[in-house]
Amino acid sequence: MMELTRKGEYAIRGIVFLASRPPEQICLLSDIAAAVDVPPTFLAKIFQQFSKIGLVKSYRGTGGGFVLGRSADKITLLEVVEAVEGPIVPNRCVINKGECARDATCNVHPVWVDVQHRVRDILNEVTLQKLAGTNPPK
Amino acid sequence: MMELTRKGEYAIRGIVFLASRPPEQICLLSDIAAAVDVPPTFLAKIFQQFSKIGLVKSYRGTGGGFVLGRSADKITLLEVVEAVEGPIVPNRCVINKGECARDATCNVHPVWVDVQHRVRDILNEVTLQKLAGTNPPK
DNA sequence: CATAAAAAGACTTATAATGTCTTTTTTGTG
DNA sequence: CACAAAAAAGACATTATAAGTCTTTTTATG
Ligand code: SF4
Ligand code: SF4
To answer: Which of the 8 DSSP states describes residue A5?
Structure first.
């Protein structure tokens, strides 16, 4: 239960690697993919999603590639995960009221709300800067 | 991300309903399924799993049905969820060491370990007794 | 023995995960 | 300007998991 998909795992690996590089250095997708051992075409899709919401900045054409959209200490693991996996919802009924007809009287419902908050809190405390911390800058 | 499956949701509904009945009363699967609005054949599979590990006790033949395997205050939501969904693993690498070659040096790894513990703690604090609390005994 | 009920297992269908492949757009350089 | 390098976009393919059904078997009761 509650398992991160490979897409999510790859997304994290990719952007953490990017965060471990000098901020101004443009990285090729192919290089990132090779470094974190992810199928390049798959990582491409992931980085396209990142790019759309500004988590990374992309440059096309010759000399193009990717850099972080903001400084690594301003990007949280929560953002990264939710960008590719969607919101963290331990059960349907926490998405919005009325999703389950029973939610008003259900005693289980608040437990899921609690789980959601705790997990989000944990992930929100972790920045890419922390994650990239001791990685070798090569 | 992290979404409970229907199987899990149904499992909880079913056993919470059972916990809301007088402890000695044998309940028909068909009655439980109708009460909690779950396909009876699907709930049958779920209760078979419960039965195998003793979460419920089943009686076959005429007059048969299900009762809780222990008193409701001795069964936690964690047990129920893990019985049908398997262990709570936010990422593959928390299953066992060596699942990911990077885990020794990875800074993300401990975050998932933390998530796992927090979620398990929350679910482990919730008993079926609490969940069945204010349900009408009909 | 007839009937009621759960157990077991095979099977089906729908959805989501995990990728791949091809084409298009953008951009820098000789 | 032509070309090459790189990301963007979108269609496609494959596999795995979820979700549920159906049939047959076993067990118990009266
Ligand atoms: S936990 Fe309660 S409110 Fe949420 S889906 Fe289940 S029954 Fe509905
Ligand atoms: S979080 Fe780290 S240890 Fe876990 S799977 Fe990803 S890379 Fe491996």
So the answer is: P
What pTM does this model have?
A: 0.93
Distance A132 CA to C14 C1' (A): 40
For residue range B80-106, what is the model confidence (pLDDT) as tens digits?
999 999 999 999 999 988 889 898 899
Facing residue for A2 by CB, picked from B16, B119, B133:
B119
Q: A136 falls in which pLDDT band (50, 70, 90)?
A: very low
Place of tokens 């007794």: B129
Q: Is residue A78 within 8 Å of A120, Cβ to Cβ?
A: yes
Q: Which domains does chain B have, with CATH numbers?
A: 6-129 (1.10.10.10)
Cα B138 to Cα B123: distance, rounded to the nearest angstrom = 27
Query: Residue B68 pairs with which residues in a beta bridge?
Result: B56
b/e burial code for range B42-77 (CB count within 10 A of at least 16 → b): ebeebbeebeeeebbebeeeeeebbbbbeebeebbb
State the distance from the centre of ligand 2 to the C-alpha of B110, rounded, in angstroms: 9
